[in-house]
Amino acid sequence: MSRSNMKNKKSVDCVVVTFNRLDLLKECVEAIENQTYPIEHFFIIDNCSTDNTWEYLQSIKSEKIVPIHLEKNLGGAGGFNAGLKTFINKSDADYVWIMDDDTIPTSTALEKLIDKSNISSHLGFLCSNVRWQDNSVAVMNIPSPDKEWNKYSDQGVTKVKSASFVSIMFPRNVVKKVGYPITDFFIWGDDVEYTLRITHDYHLDGFMVNDSLVEHKIKQNIATDLVKEESLGRVKRYYLAQRNTIFYLKKHSTKKEVFKATVRQGVKVPIKALIKSKDHRFYRAWVSVKGTAAGLFFNPKIEKVEKRDNFK
């Protein structure tokens, strides 16, 4: 990068949320440190891990890395809420780049995002092209395309309505305008809600940068599926998925879409679970019905950015 470009370059902070995945976190940290476009501050949010993550973070000797320890596990949603509050209150960088601890960016991932930061005067976010370990598309991280998805294709981006938090960058002014992710979501859907809030409610543009590549280092390249879920311990989490989906559709979509999702999650998925799930069929069906019903009444607070957020 030339001296003139360095002088005028846009500053970027990074936020990573971690919970009990120390080996993956170390790999993620190394990938962030090896970016061709350097970050200013690196905020690592430890979601009250119990696997020596905090000890590792305290042992790192780096002026850029700022570890934040949460007193209890707030889920990914609460972790990113805390991370963006830290970004707003502890930094003055132009952008924040966020991801989970199992995201492994290629060395040019951030540089490619920054290259497209002037693509729209109404920019809401830029997200990466997420792949699995064999370089196939990461199924659970496919952004929702905008109706004008190919309008900017000649510029190497795809216009999207919503995206996951697996490598996504927000301008500071957007966070200040739309507020923070909803902590009460805990997990699943917080990223979709937040990005829909940006594109639907505030009419800002979201883009996937096609050549900003990251790996989502998950064991299986499958979408979340209550009917096929292998881990019984994870089945209860689908209550949150169903509840959160109904909420963000209520907030950022049409009554027709809410009705379709209610029928799908409250009727079709339970019937499918009763017929096709390999075990605990009634439990799976009940989780989907209960979560869907809860979503109709779920009304969490959306936190706005205050002049001085009291974040500790």
TrEMBL record:
<comment type="pathway">
    <text>Cell wall biogenesis; cell wall polysaccharide biosynthesis.</text>
</comment>
<feature type="domain" description="Glycosyltransferase 2-like">
    <location>
        <begin position="14"/>
        <end position="139"/>
    </location>
</feature>
<keyword id="KW-0328">Glycosyltransferase</keyword>
<comment type="similarity">
    <text>Belongs to the glycosyltransferase 2 family.</text>
</comment>
<keyword id="KW-0808">Transferase</keyword>
<dbReference type="InterPro" id="IPR029044">
    <property type="entry name" value="Nucleotide-diphossugar_trans"/>
</dbReference>
<dbReference type="Pfam" id="PF00535">
    <property type="entry name" value="Glycos_transf_2"/>
</dbReference>
<dbReference type="InterPro" id="IPR001173">
    <property type="entry name" value="Glyco_trans_2-like"/>
</dbReference>
<protein>
    <submittedName>
        <fullName>Glycosyltransferase</fullName>
    </submittedName>
</protein>
<dbReference type="GO" id="GO:0016757">
    <property type="term" value="F:glycosyltransferase activity"/>
</dbReference>
